Amino acid sequence: MGINPKILTRAEIVLIAILALAAFSLILTRYVNPDFVPLFNLKRLQEKVFLNTKPSPESKVEYMTFLLNVRLDEIKYILSRKKYDYLLSTSLRYSTLAGETTELIIANNLKDQAEPLKNQFLYHKQILHDLYVSYPKNTDNVEYKYLEDDINYLDIYLNKLSRLK
């Protein structure tokens, strides 16, 4: 007597397809940058879902500091490819995330998380400064001001974190 393989139901096939698509999109969006808008939006949605699954403020801060590095890499990518039209939105995502991370630390009095974030901000400030200095300023592009804004925001956030006692 042979073993009859179970015939998959339509719901099981749909579920398998959805899971396979989700796994594929996770792999595909890992290295997507802001200039590839449809997949980048999917990447941002995945990041938001991951952030909302974090059970504690500490784990949220840890994930957000990881994302800060990703956002900085996106700024570097945009500038290296001279895709200046994307610099405003990319820069705003970076400074917003930096502010949200700062506010989360302050709101939850996570003093042990403040010093590492300050160090990260100082490191990022130097990179942003270097990008600002190397940005071509003799053109019609004035997007370099967004880099200056990011640096100024980091100064504000560093000040806020320094006052955490």
Radius of gyration: 21 Å
What's the architecture of the domain at 54-162, going by CATH?
A: Up-down Bundle
Low-confidence stretches: none
Report helical residue fraction: over 70%
Would you write up a description of this structure?
The mean pLDDT is 88. Helices cover 75% and strands 0% of the residues. It has a domain at 54-162: Four Helix Bundle (Hemerythrin (Met), subunit A) (Up-down Bundle). It is mainly α. It starts with 9 loop residues before the first helix and ends with a helix.
Summed up:
The protein has 165 residues and is mainly alpha-helical.
Features:
0% strand; Four Helix Bundle (Hemerythrin (Met), subunit A); mainly alpha; 165 residues
Q: How would you summarize the topology of this molecule?
A:
Blueprint (H helix, E strand, L loop, with lengths): L9 H20 L7 H16 L4 H24 L6 H21 L3 H24 L9 H19 L3
